[in-house]
Amino acid sequence: MRLVPKPLRIATALFLLLHFGLLNVAPAAAGLVPSRVSGETTIASSRDADLIAVRRALEHRLVAQKLRDYGVQPTEVEARLASMSEQDLHTLASASRGLPSGSDGLGILVTVLVIVLLVILILKLLNKEIIVR
Question: Is the Cβ–Cβ distance between 96 and 59 less than 8 Å?
Answer without folding.
Answer: no
